[in-house]
């Protein structure tokens, strides 16, 4: 297990280094002069030169890249051109919204998907299976921003059970969770539909294995065979989807955060793009890349814990 984890850590480091090269090239090299881009086409040349000095753009690209890596390793993401505060402070502040939102949505998604997928597999081919999978397909087809607006209309405007937008902060955790409930539900339902379909397919495939037939022949019911034997082996593709979903929920909630006016990481990067604040864009994108690679690493470790056979193939 230790050798497996070390190899995955090395792979994670290589992937992170390659991603940092791509992010640096796309933001600081390919567009041309980042300072001129940030100030606009009609910017004063002296202002452009001053901004270049401020951002440290006068050195060679390799030197700037190494300096950027070194600063990030120390937690220094630079100073935001728009807000004139350290980017690290902005990220920490916005993560206080985005991270709980992603965790909340993933929890809801899992709590909805697991029973739906298990029941659909247990009732395979019956009306319950068709009804659940038809509903799941509808959940996949509906855009989450449209569903978010529907939730606001019903639960915020009509019933007044939840706020329509904004975030009160964590001074009152109950109110904070209440403000995140509708956004989390809007994010969770489409992901739950995907997860339920994947779990159903994995369970059905597992139920066709010989050891499941042997268990059934010994007197176990279909539900008992699923609970005692099939579910554990069907979790590997489910873990893959869960890892991808958490990365998406953390990095891809831009539209939902804008619908609900949440001061999260997605809204920060959207504002940074519109304001041409490349310092913030570069830092946040790199942080999100790191989050995706880290989640992938954790999923690989979970694979090995669930199925020891995977360790022997490394």
TrEMBL record:
Family recorded in the similarity comment = Belongs to the binding-protein-dependent transport system permease family.
Protein localization: Cell membrane
Major subcellular location class: membrane
Q: Name one GO cellular component term.
A: plasma membrane
Keywords (A to Z) from UniProt? Cell membrane, Membrane, Transmembrane, Transmembrane helix, Transport
Quote one Gene Ontology molecular function term: dipeptide transmembrane transporter activity
Q: How does it sit in the membrane?
A: Multi-pass membrane protein
Name of the protein this chain belongs to: Peptide/nickel transport system permease protein
TM segments? 7-30, 101-122, 134-157, 177-199, 234-256, 284-306
The UniProt entry, under Pfam families, shows:
BPD_transp_1 (PF00528), BPD_transp_1_N (PF19300)
